[in-house]
Amino acid sequence: MTLELSRSLLYLDDITVSFDGFKALNALSLLIEPGEMRAIIGPNGAGKTTMMDVITGKTRPDEGSAMFAGRHDLTSMDEARIANLGIGRKFQKPTVFESHTVWDNLLLALKDSRGVFGTLFSSTSASQKEAIEELLETVHLTDASMAMAANLSHGQKQWLEIGMLLAQDPQLLLVDEPVAGMTDAETAQTAQLLRKINETRSVVVVEHDMTFVRDLDVKVTVLHEGSVLADGSLDHISSNERVIEVYLGR
Ligand SMILES: Nc1ncnc2c1ncn2[C@@H]1O[C@H](COP(=O)(O)OP(=O)(O)OP(=O)(O)O)[C@@H](O)[C@H]1O
Ligand SMILES: [Mg+2]
User: Fold this and answer.
1) CA distance 98 to 157
2) Which residues, 6 or more positions from 137, have their beta carbon under 8 angstroms from its beta carbon?
3) Whose CA is nearest to atom 18 of ligand 1?
4) Is the dihedral of CA 233, 236, 238, 241 positive or negative?
5) How does pLDDT run across 6-59, given as a tens digit for each residue?
6) Label partner for 244 (CA 20 to 30 A): which of 12, 74, 80, 213?
């Protein structure tokens, strides 16, 4: 095993994904260290979501390897198995159970849950209650715990979904455009939330909102035409002429 692979949590090596001959990912390589949070930016169509599709087993690469924790070959596993390994994914559109309360959404998301009926019609254990209360606090929804998910603001729904992912206790959280459609205040709170989550888990977050990316204060990778164009601090990549040309300067 190479040294790079052994010290990585996620290791993408030379990944290519073609759709009808068009390379959505083109020899993409990326290494995420244990405990790291990484921001991924880049123009529309750069391959950011496709990269997450490869990591989560939704899309199989034509070439290349994707290794988790130095030993799990993600390209040979299905989505359920990858989720069970400890990789959680948040899509752009929140997918909460609208007709259930915030509390019940989190209860349903807990790892030991027994299906909707079994979970909601049996008593909640002390440890489940404690876990839910902690999740509510983390995602700033304690005061809304008895509200119907349908009645939450867009930002609150996003936080609830992040809470539901945390209920699964993932080691790596993938988040695709979490602050799209949020108010400035919600955006700032989401940066704070991800930083808190990153105290105990690794995070890969795709975003176009540069104020948010600055707030995260982490290493940034710029994708362009399916490969890495540049990476480093936001200040470092912001002064890169190619990055300005293809993305930041538009
Ligand atoms: N299932 C698919 N079939 C065909 N083409 C696809 C498919 N999925 C993605 N693509 C194409 O691959 C390219 C990369 O798309 P992707 O969604 O990964 O970009 P992105 O970086 O997430 O962009 P955005 O910032 O707009 O979300 C695009 O040109 C897209 O049209
Ligand atoms: Mg996308």
Assistant:
1) 9
2) none
3) 47
4) negative
5) 889 999 999 999 999 999 999 999 999 999 999 999 999 999 999 999 999 999
6) 12
Q: Give just the sign of the alpha carbon dihedral 188, 193, 194, 196.
A: positive
Number of Cβ atoms within 10 Å of the Cβ of 151: 12
Whole-angstrom Cα distance, residue 95 to residue 92? 9
Decide if 247 contacts 41 (C-beta within 8 A): yes
Enter the tokens of residue 217: 């204060």
Q: Which ligand is nearest to the CA of 41?
A: 1
Ligand 1 mean position to 33 CA, how many Å?
26
pTM: 0.94
Q: How far apart are CA 248 and CA 107, in angstroms?
A: 41
Dihedral sign for Cα atoms in the order 125, 128, 129, 130: positive
Measured CA angle at 6 (ends 51, 81), to 5 deg: 50
